[in-house]
Amino acid sequence: MRASVTAVLSICLFIVSSSVPAQNQKEIAWKPALAYGGAPNCPNHAGSRTLKSETVGSGKISAVILGSAEKSQQRGCAFSARLVISGVANKAVRLPDPSQRGFSIVDFSEDGKKLLLAGEKNLEYPNEQFRNVSVAVLDLSGGNPTWNNAWDVFGWHDCDAMVEPQGFSSDGRVVFRLRPSVMRPPRRPDCVASAGLYTTDLAGRVQHLPDDASVQRYGKLIARSSAPCKTDPDIIAACFSVHGRLSAWNGGPTMRIWHVGTTRILGVDDDSQMPIILQEKMNWGIEAWGDFEVCPLTPERPGWMQMVCIESVDHPFFRDLK
Description:
This protein has helices spanning 150-153, 276-281; strands at residues 35-38, 47-52, 55-58, 61-72, 76-87, 91-94, 101-108, 114-121, 133-139, 148-149, 162-168, 174-179, 196-200, 206-208, 220-223, 240-248, 255-259, 265-268, 286-296, 306-320.
C-alpha cells in the first residue's frame, strides 16, 4: 500500500525517557488505522449484537475484526472480539479484554507477512491518556501476538501522552506518532515535549525520526464496516419506510432524518452502523435524500425524537451543501 519511512535515519538509538527534548513544532502528519473494531455496546434487551470492522488486505491476505455482545437474563452481558485472517494464511485470534478495549488493524508490513494491531483501553478521569494504548505485531505465518503497553516500550512512568501507532517502517520496525496530551487541565506531566515520529522494535530500542519523515501504508480497504440493524435485540417494533432527508446536526444524535412533508425528525443511533453507501458518502457537508428503511429503538411519542437505526436506503440522492 503506501508506507514506509522515506527519510534517511541519521540519529543514534536512544531510550525515550519521561521527557523528550523539544523538536520542531510543525504538525506531524497522522495516518488513521486501516480498520477499527471490537465488541459493540451491550444491548438493553436479551440477545446478541454484532459488529464487523472494515475488511482490509495485502496481497492474498485479508483481515477483519468480528465483535459481539450477548445479553442474557442469567449471565448479564458477555463480550467477545476476534481477529480473523483469510487467504494464504487462515487463522482466528482472540483479542484481550474486549469489554474494556477498542481495537484497530493499523497496517501490514511491507512484505505482507506481519500485521500491526493496536488496542486502546476505555479509561475515565483522570486516566484518559495514561497507559491506555497497547500494540502487538502478529506474525501471519503462525503464533499469537504479544501485547506491549506503549508506556513500557518507551520507558515512561507517571506521564500522559497522545500515542498513535502509525504502521511499519521499511525495515520492519513499528512507527508511532507521539504528542503531548490534549487533556486540559493537565492530569500529569507530558511524556513528550512536542509531536514527532518514532520507530521501535518494541523491546526498548527507540529512534526519533527526522521532521520530514513520513509513513507509508501497505494495506488497503476491501470492505466497509457493518452491523445488523433489523436483527438488533433492542428493536422494539416493526421496521418501516420513510421518505426523507438524512443530514448531520450539532449535538446528539449526530445523524437525523427529516420525514418529508412533516415536522417529524428521527434520530439515528450514534452506535449503529449505516448502510455502506451512506458510510462512504455522508459527512458534515453532504445530505442524503431517499427512501430509508428504519427500525425503531424507542417508542414514538409526540414532542420526542424517536431513535432508529437504518437498515437500507433506496434511490439515494446526495446533495453537496458547500
